[in-house]
Amino acid sequence: MDRRNVYWIAGVSWFALTVCGCNLYNSRPDFTSSSLTELPASRTVQNPVSHPPLDHDDKDGFRLQDFNVDNLNSAVKKAAGKDTNPEVARTLYVEAEAKYQQASAAVSQSSEKTALFEDAAKGFRQAAARFPESQLEEDALFLAAESLFFSDQYPKASELYAELLKKYPNSKHLDTIESRRFSIAKYWLDVEDQKPESFYQMNLTDRSLPWRDRFGHAVKTFDRIRFDDPTGKLADDATMAQANAYFRKGEYLRADQLYGDLRETFPSSEHQFHAHLFAVEAKLKSYQGPDYAGDALKEAEKLIVTMRRQFPQQSEEQLKYLQGAYAEVRYRQAEREMFMGRFFAQRGRNKSARFYYQSVLDDFQDVPVMVENATQQLAALEGKRDAPVDRWGWVEEWLPDSDGAPPLIMNNPASTLNR
How many Å apart are CA 226 and CA 222, to the nearest integer? Predict the structure, then answer.
C-alpha cells in the first residue's frame, strides 16, 4: 500500500474513532439483520411526486478502502453522518416541502413566512447533499432556490439557480429559472436607476440586494441567462435589457456591441427595430470627433437606411428622430472631410487637401454650410503647389545613384573578415 495512503488512513481513523466512537475494523454489518436502525414510524415518508422508489444499499459501516486518499471526502462525510443516503434524502425533502407549502399558503409577507421559507431552503439543500446526481437533487436545489427567491434573498437565490444549471444544464426547471433571474436582474437595475450606488458603498442590511455593485451583478445575471439558454425565449430580452443598462450608464460602445449582437443573433426578435434605433444613438454618442475614426458614422448611416426599408411603419413613427439623426450623421461626415482637408493644407500638401475638399462638393450637397466652406477653401488653394518644396533635395542629388553603385554599407560585413 502506498505510504501516503497509510498516513491518511491513520489520521482519519483517529478522527472517526474520536467523533463517532465506532469501531472502524468491524466486519460489515448484516443488512438482513433486524437489529438495523430503522426510521421511526412517525417519520415514515411517502414517495414524493415524480420521485419513484429507489434501490437502496445503505452502508452504515466503514471499509478500509474508504480511507484511501481518493475517497477521503466520502469517508469524512460518512463519519459525520452526511454520506449519500437516498432514504434520508427523501425524508428531508418531504419535510422541507411541507414547510415550503406552508409558507406559500401564508397570506402576507411576515417574519414567520420568511422563516418557513428559510427553513425549507435549508432542508432542500440538505436533501440534495444526501442524494447527489439524482432527480431528487435537481428538484431539491430548484425548490431551495425558489424558497430563497420568495423570501427576498435574491443574491443567494441567483447563485443557487446558477449552481443548479451548472449541474443540470438541461433542467426541466430552466424556463422558470430564467424568468426568476430576469426579474432579479431587472429589480437590481431599477434600484440602481432610482438611487445610484457610490463606488465605496456597501450593503450590509438589505438581503434582496448584493453587498455591493448592483449594476455589475445585474448585467452578469443577464449574461448568465444568455449563456445558459442561448435559444430560450428570454435570451433576446436579456440581451436587450443588458444593452439598455449599459446605454443608461453612458457606456455607449458596450451598448452598441450588444445591440449589434441582438440584431445578428436574434433576427426574428421583437426588439429588432429598437436594437437598430438605439444603436444609431449609441454610435452618435460614442463618436469622438473628426480627429478620430469615422466608422461609427458610416454604420449609423447604414442603420438608418436599413430601418427605413425594413421597418417602414415603425420608422414613420420615429420619423422626426430619424431625420434629425441622419442630418447629424451627414454633417459629421462632411465635417470630418473638411478637417482632413485643413490638416493637409496646413502642411502644404495641397493636392491631398483638394481631394478632401472636392469630396465634400461631390458627396455632401445635402450639407450646404460645408459645401460653401469647401468651395472657399478650394478657391484659396488655386495656383498653389501640390506639395511643399523639398529643401533637402540637394542631399539626394549628392548621394550616388543606387543603380550599379556599391552600397555605402556592405550588405555582408563578414566578407571583409575573410580577406
Answer: 6
Burial class for 404, CB neighbours closer than 10 Å (0-12, 13-18, 19+): exposed
**C-alpha separations of 303 from 183, 274, 281, 308, 383 in Å:** 31, 11, 11, 9, 42
Residues 24-45 as b or e (16 or more Cβ within 10 Å = b): beeeeeeeeeeeeeeeeeeeee
CB 276, CB 315: distance < 8 Å: no
Dist. CA 365–CA 237, nearest whole Å: 41
Torsion angles phi and psi, residue 237, rounded to 5: -65, -40
In sequence order, the 6+-apart residues with CB closer than 8 A to the CB of 41 are none
First to last CA, the chain: 73
The model's pTM is 0.73
Contact 233, 175 (CB under 8 A): yes
* Single-letter residue type at 87: E
> Cβ–Cβ contacts within 10 Å for residue 106, how many?
13
Residue ranges covered by each domain of the chain? 152-233
Q: Which one-letter amino acid corresponds to residue 128? A: A
Mean pLDDT in each 10-residue stretch from start to end of the chain (419 residues)? Answer: 52 48 37 30 35 43 51 51 84 96 84 93 96 96 97 96 96 96 97 90 93 95 95 95 96 97 96 97 94 92 96 95 96 95 92 94 95 94 80 61 51 44
Contact 158, 181 (CB under 8 A): yes
